[in-house]
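Key result, reporting period 2: structure in, sequence out.
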């Protein structure tokens, strides 16, 4: 069963060693946890539903609580403190587009607002109901999760939009295919959510972002059904797919999606390499991407992330031996770890690995084999469970991400990190900050930054700390040529920064698009644009 107030499955945990806590407390100080609200305490706060009865709508308090919040930091604090505020008035699990239509008509009659719900993994407040005089209906897409058709000749798979990562891959693998979309939230996030937030999977270098994988589909909107054809390409004016990508539940509910799939690769391995310093490493990965060398993943950790990953790995003696060897070979303090994936048929695999290693070694890279890469792949969807373990010891962790042209990448990493490091200096609190580059493009790269800080002695204080951190980093991103989000989307937390990217006319155009499909403004109000 899913945790109601944290990340992941209740049966899974990712404990940290005492050495790892020692490392963190040395960086930012010892911490004291505060007690969380219990499930019963929060359930007692769920008010009467304001929705009229309907056979497709569940109004039980626990169902409503479990759909009340996503995974953003404010969501996390709301659940942990028990101050959830607004709950949906009802939750529905339609099994088809027809049932979604029935629900949209019901919502219109009941003057309810509608929140389309994927896996609830949003980290920017996408599925959090706003305080609203009208009732709130959350439409959980999880029962529309089947592979409906697989056209092997065209390599297009039709799915119910509520299929989550494991279910998409299992259904395709049974036929020898893969979608290749592996966000870190893979365990729970779903096709419809990926499309509605413009998600990017860890192997986007090979398979592309969700934009490239989404070929077409069906959207139920308050104004009717929108069918989006799945041509391989077309020059017939603006592309309807682009209106749905990133629409964040504002124009309708995706019920069926056509996805571009590929046969399972013959061979795939992840490798690790260390560079003596950051700038040479950044230049090397840029050369590999601009040279169109065919890798499936690149993740370049900066020196602090490298040090942190090694400290948290939990194999103190092994890591110490590795560090001695690396230092002897020239990669000591300031070293940067690169994890890279090679995927394809055997010949492509050999050629790509050889080409990439040639570039990396010329830049001073020291190849460390595929053992650590294998470990990374085994744990890649479990790392988020650390958030639970850290919280229980009094530490908060959050992440943010942007993308910038290569010309800006180097400096923007430094600017974001300094903004975060200094954000709590007024109260003499230290912040542990580190970054990596992933999702690399010939034009530039995404930058993914993690920050750890101590929770305050009240939930309000912790929220204040987070707010200051988030604001400082977001302002630094916007002022220095980065996008406010590379793959987490806009939701609530990024909405006020959108004007800087889209401009007044752009925002007006997005609002007009929403109005076209949803004239009464019932679809997920308050998200993306206000
Ligand atoms: C631990 C963790 C790791 C993450 N890693 C990544 C990552 O590697 N890459 C990445 O891109 N993101 C990542 N995210 C963010 C999040 O997983 C993505 O934004 C994801 O795409 C959300 O999908 P979901 O199904 O959970 O959607 P939800 O959170 O349920 O909804 C997100 C938005 O999509 C809309 N929506 C959902 N389904 C539909 C539908 N069928 N029709 C219309 N609108 C719909 C909702 O209304 C909402 O506005 C991560 C989040 C967490 C918590």
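The corresponding designed sequence is given below.
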């Amino acid at each position: 069963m899913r945790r109601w107030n944290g990340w992941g499955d209740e049966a899974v945990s990712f404990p940290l060693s005492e050495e790892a806590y020692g490392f963190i407390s040395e960086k930012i100080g010892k911490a004291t946890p505060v007690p969380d609200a219990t499930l019963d305490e929060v359930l007692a706060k769920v008010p009467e539903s304001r929705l009229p009865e309907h056979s497709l709508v569940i109004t039980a308090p626990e169902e409503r609580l479990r759909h009340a919040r996503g995974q953003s930091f404010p969501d996390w604090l709301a659940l942990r403190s028990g101050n959830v505020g607004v709950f949906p008035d009802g939750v529905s699990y339609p099994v088809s587009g027809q049932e979604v239509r029935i629900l949209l008509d019901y919502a219109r009659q009941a003057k309810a607002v509608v929140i389309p719900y994927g896996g609830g993994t949003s980290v920017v407040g996408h599925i959090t109901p706003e305080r609203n005089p009208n009732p709130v209906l959350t439409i959980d897409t999880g029962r529309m999760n089947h592979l409906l058709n697989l056209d092997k000749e065209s390599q297009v798979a039709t799915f119910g939009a509520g299929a989550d990562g494991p279910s998409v891959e299992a259904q395709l693998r049974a036929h020898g295919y893969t979608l290749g979309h592996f966000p870190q939230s893979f365990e729970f996030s779903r096709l419809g959510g990926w499309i509605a937030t413009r998600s990017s999977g860890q192997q986007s270098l090979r398979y592309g972002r969700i934009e490239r994988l989404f070929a077409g589909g069906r959207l139920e909107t308050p104004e009717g059904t929108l069918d989006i054809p799945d041509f391989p390409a077309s020059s017939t004016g603006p592309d309807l797919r682009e209106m749905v990508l990133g629409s964040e539940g504002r124009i309708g509910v995706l019920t069926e999606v056509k996805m571009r799939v590929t046969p399972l690769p013959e061979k795939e391995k992840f490798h690790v390499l260390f560079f003596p310093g950051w700038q040479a490493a950044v230049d090397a990965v840029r050369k590999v991407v601009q040279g169109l060398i065919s890798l499936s993943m690149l993740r370049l950790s900066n020196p602090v992330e490298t040090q942190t990953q090694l400290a948290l790995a939990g194999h103190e003696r092994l890591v110490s031996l590795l560090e001695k060897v690396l230092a002897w070979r020239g990669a000591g303090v300031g070293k940067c770890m690169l994890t890279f994936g090679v995927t394809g048929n055997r010949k492509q695999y050999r050629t790509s690995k050889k080409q990439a290693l040639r570039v990396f070694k010329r830049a001073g890279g020291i190849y460390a084999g595929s053992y650590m890469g294998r470990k990374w792949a085994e744990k890649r969807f479990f790392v988020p469970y650390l958030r639970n373990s850290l919280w229980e010891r009094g530490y908060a962790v959050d992440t943010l991400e942007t993308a910038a042209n290569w010309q800006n990448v180097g400096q923007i990493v430094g600017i974001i990190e300094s903004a975060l490091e200094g954000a709590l200096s007024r109260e003499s609190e230290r912040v542990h900050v580190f970054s990596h580059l992933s999702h690399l493009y010939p034009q530039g790269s995404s930058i993914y930054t993690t920050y750890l800080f101590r929770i305050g002695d009240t939930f309000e204080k912790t929220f204040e700390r987070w707010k200051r951190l988030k604001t400082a980093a977001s302002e630094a991103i916007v002022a220095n040529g980065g996008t406010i989000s590379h793959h987490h989307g806009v939701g609530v937390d990024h909405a006020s920064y959108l004007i800087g990217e889209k401009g007044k006319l752009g925002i007006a155009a997005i609002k007009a698009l929403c109005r076209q499909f949803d004239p009464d403004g019932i679809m997920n109000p308050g998200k993306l644009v206000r």
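The first strand starts at residue 57 and ends at 58. Residues 7, 70-71, 115-123, 126-127, 141, 161, 183-185, 189-190, 192-194, 196-197, 199-200, 248-249, 253-254, 384, 487-489, 524, 527 surround flavin-adenine dinucleotide (CB under 6 Å). This case is discussed further under Risks and Mitigation.
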